[in-house]
User: Which sequence fits this backbone?
């Protein structure tokens, strides 16, 4: 449906501003369920992100989660924000809760924190926060996003990841979102995200 600046558009009871233009920044926090492929189009994927998000503005994702992982995915129409968040040199934090089939030894955990050379990727992982929080469970904070990084890091010690959930990206937390649901990021939370990404935003 075509709209003009004179039209008032509401979505789920909330007014959407500048729907006909590209100035307004739309940023969503989405809980990607296990089994959903992070792609805009894939005829071989059973479920993709767009199957869960019906939104009046075209959005794309800032960062990925593999099909077997779940948790927080940031969706936006702002290419500058995506680029800023994706630059590894910025060392933006991403936090995860991971369960595995067996625990790291104290010595292995120290090596895990200091960084591991991943042969398949030809590089060493950055130092990270890794806390043993329960039986076969770890909380990790990474500042890079190598391909299947966490699974490869545990795999270095012949440990298999059973579940992997991302619970935070920079200042944005998954919170009490349920799998397949999303919320719009607004106000101070949005400003803090842009500030953390090194960008400015108009209120």
Assistant:
């Amino acid at each position: 449906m075509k709209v003009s600046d004179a039209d008032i558009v509401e979505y789920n009871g909330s007014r959407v501003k500048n729907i006909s233009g590209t100035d307004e920044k739309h940023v969503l926090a989405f809980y990607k369920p296990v089994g959903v492929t992070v792609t805009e189009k894939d005829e071989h994927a059973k479920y993709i992100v767009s199957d869960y998000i019906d939104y009046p503005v075209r959005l794309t994702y800032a960062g990925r989660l593999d099909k077997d992982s779940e948790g927080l995915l940031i969706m936006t129409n702002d290419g500058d924000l995506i680029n800023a968040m994706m630059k590894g040199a910025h060392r933006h934090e991403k936090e995860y809760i991971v369960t595995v089939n067996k625990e790291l030894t104290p010595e292995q955990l120290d090596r895990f924190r200091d960084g591991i050379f991943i042969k398949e990727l030809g590089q060493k992982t950055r130092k990270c926060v890794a806390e043993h929080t329960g039986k076969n469970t770890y909380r990790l904070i990474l500042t890079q996003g190598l391909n299947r990084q966490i699974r490869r890091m545990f795999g270095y010690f012949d440990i298999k990841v059973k579940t992997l959930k991302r619970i935070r990206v920079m200042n944005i937390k998954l919170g009490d979102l349920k799998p397949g649901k999303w919320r719009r990021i607004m106000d101070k939370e949005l400003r803090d995200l842009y500030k953390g990404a090194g960008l400015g935003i108009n209120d």
Notes: The chain has four helices and 15 strands. Residues 22-87+175-187 form a domain with the Alpha-Beta Plaits fold (CATH 3.30.70.580). The CA atoms of residues 6 and 18 lie 9 Å apart.
